[in-house]
Design brief:
alpha/beta, 4-stranded mixed beta sheet, 14 helices, about 30% helix, elongated, binds uridine-diphosphate-2(N-acetylglucosaminyl) butyric acid
Length: about 425
Amino acid sequence: MDKFVITGGKKLSGIVEISGAKNAALAIMPACLLNDGINELTNIPEVNDIFTMIKLLNHLGIESNFEKHKLIIDSSNITHQDAPYEHVKKMRASVYVLGPLLAKYGKATVSLPGGCAWGPRPINLHLEAMKKLGANIELEDGYIIATTDGLRGAKIHFDISSVGATGNAVMAAVLAKGSTLISNAAIEPEITLLCEFLKRMGANIGGIGTQKLEIEGVSSLAPANTRIISDRIEAGTILTAAAITKSKIDIVDSEIEHLESVLWKLEETGAKLFKNNDIMTIDARDIDHKSVDVSTSIYPGFPTDMQAQWTALMCLTEGTSTITDNIYIDRFKHVPELNRLGADIEIIRNSTVVRGVKKLKGAKVMSTDLRASASLVLAGLAAEGTTEVLRIYHLDRGYQKIEEKLRLLGAEIERVSTTEF
Ligand code: EPU
């Protein structure tokens, strides 16, 4: 088990490159199950969730080779159509194999994901979409057993906009017979990339990037290649690291436009932002950050995956801010840990009220999930003294060697092996 030991108070400077988006890759990789052949995916981040998905795909019969951010996926010899509990319990995105397996092989047995670190995360919308497309769904011994004698196009309206359910529905519908209409589809950049990738395979999808997708099923799909977009949440986290340490840094990110809502909020705090081609500069030197409220929503709104990091930043402002999470109403496991560092945060229903304090003081804190861990690292960078962030395996699921990137920028942060839990 590893922990981070951070000596706070160092100014950051320099330039770092943003890695590929793990949430985009986690949708694109199972999409390769829809064809028979060799797919080439580039800009894949080296994070543990990607390794978990590779293991699951290998279990299904996929042959793969992952080197220097390039992932080759050979889908010619699928031998299994099941996602066992051991994979799904590690990562909910494993449920993405449901749609492709059902569409291509007529059956899929996928473990139910269960709860997650911050509360229930149902998959009812995934299952309803599969049923609409003609699948027979049974739940048995903690598994979804989905079968069909051939999916058929359908009208699917999502009551809640869901990234995962949209991804699964699109992957199933591209091989279904006839037309499918999906309304209130997710328009997150990760879903747009998935739809574009499916089109490259030969899928017939209209309305990409809008909340209404029109799909005309085809009988087969061919292998394809794509480059994974930059990780908007990693970009937001690193820009917030510069903001909280009152520093000036540059990031290289070819899709920074995906982060617009966060960039605007950063500007509202008083930070200055400049864009020059692929380089985004943030200059937060010598500023007293203003308190800025945020309320999370679906894309292009402020992402829930930046809520915890924003809370860390708001701890060191002059006034009071309210941060509301409308996507996950109880995603606040970072709050008691930030309070251990001297923050003054109160949770009221699905909001936190953050009363700014003059300083944070280093302490031992514990990661509970991916973005909560990121918020603790940010707080540690700004806190006086030493902060130890335990259980960083959560962070390793989604950030590619964040300590190396931060060290490159001048932060004092070490990964230390520990028996502490
Ligand atoms: N929802 C349902 N039923 C469903 C599916 C979702 O009620 O069947 C609800 C959820 O409980 C939530 C809302 O719909 O309130 C949106 O959830 P969504 O399905 O969009 O989330 P997801 O697809 O499970 C992805 C990301 C998450 C990110 C959310 C929201 C991946 C692999 N995961 O999850 O990323 O928070 O979208 O943007 O793409 C992270 O990276 O830290 C992370 C958790």
